[in-house]
Amino acid sequence: MLGFEADAASTEIKVGSELAEARWFDAEEIPAAIAAGELVVSSSLSISHYLIARWYRERTGLRLPEGQPWQSR
After folding, report:
1. Residue range 3-20: average pLDDT?
2. For residue 33, is it within any domain?
3. pTM given for the model
4. Per 3-state DSSP, what percentage of the chain is helix, strand, and coil (rounded to 5)?
């Protein structure tokens, strides 16, 4: 598995056949979104978790808050 970082050219979100839902979060919004269940971050074993946690730590100096584990619907 590979993981990449990039800068978005636009904040416009396009939802299609491969993406059912998407939303942008500022680092400051993440703790409240996780606590409210609006944002569920994948397991700490995943590369997506690592990338998100690193991004969050670089911006805040804090560890990514823990939330409820992801469950399939």
Report:
1. 88
2. yes
3. 0.79
4. 35, 5, 65
